[in-house]
Structures are given as C-alpha cells and as structure tokens.
User: What shape does this take?
Amino acid sequence: MKRPKIKIVTCGRFENKTKMHICRDVSRIFQVDVDVFECTIDVSKYYNPARRQYNADMLLELLISRYTPGYIKHLSVFQGDLFIPILTYIFGQAVLEGDYAIASNYRLRNELYGLKRDDQLMRERFSKVVVHELGHTFGLKHCINPVCIMRSSTYVEDLDQKEIEFCPACREKLDAMMKR
Ligand SMILES: [Zn+2]
Ligand SMILES: [Zn+2]
Assistant: This one.
C-alpha cells in the first residue's frame, strides 16, 4: 500500500542535517513519506519590524494559499521568530484537524539563552515542535502526560522534558485519525 505523503517547505537556509533530522522523525512517527521543497516566495512582507518577528497567522494563510494536491499535510519551517498577536512568541502553529502547520527553530537555539551552541539539541527540539504541530493537524489537542509530545510547551526546557513520541492515549487517537 502506498504511504501518505507530507509536504515540507523550508524557508531560510537550513542545514541539510537539520532538514534530514526533521524528515526522518516525521516519516518514522507518522509512517508517511516526506517531500521537501525550498520556499521560493519572499516572506519579508510578513515581517513586523516593530516586533522584529514574523506574523505566524499570515504565514499560515500563505501556506494555505499554496496548497498542493497529493499531500495529507503541509508544513513550513522558518528560521525567523514567530508571533501571533496575543502571544509574545510561538514555536509553531497549526490548524487543528486541518492540513497546515508551521514551525520555527529561532527560539530553539541555546545561543539565544546565552548557552553553548548545541546543534544536535536544537534539531531534537525542532523535531519535537514539528511533530507536536503536525499532531494538532491530526486533531490532537494538548495532553497532560508530562512526557507526551502533545504536552504544551512554552519554554525550551518544556521541550527538553518531553519525548518525541505520543503517549498511548494520543497514539490511539492519532492512529484512528490516520485510518480515516
Ligand atoms: Zn500545541
Ligand atoms: Zn498524550
């Protein structure tokens, strides 16, 4: 049987290692194939100079307008800092039970917090954000299990405490959604 496919669009110059890390985790966890594309559109108009951040709602709208048939989910990843008007920043955002999600690695880098650069840790955090947001697109809401990937995360420390796995309850819901 052919596996479903997820489309990932990278905006910004991500290292191949980072892209591969995300693809591998998404593919393994959701049992899908992944196609990666580089973003060809200028996202500078979604930049808010006063906040020095990108408007995540508008980036999500942009992604929705670029729908490509053949993919069960569309994900865009960014390097810029993301915000939505009601929050200071976000790691990512998704349409609940929809087809679209976005994520940024901006706040996942140790350097931002005055700590030693650790690219492997950044990639692990990034994968967690991506899998969490894609989880939302499959209809999963926040989970209270402390190690479940669907637990909500405000700080990188929260991400570090979670596993990159769904708890049994979330996994069961996910499997049911994927069968639909
Ligand atoms: Zn969430
Ligand atoms: Zn859970």
Notes: The first strand starts at residue 5 and ends at 11. Residues 119-137 form the longest helix (19 residues). The pocket of zinc ion (ligand 1) is lined by residues 132, 136, 142, 152 (CB under 6 Å). The chain has one domain: 5-141.
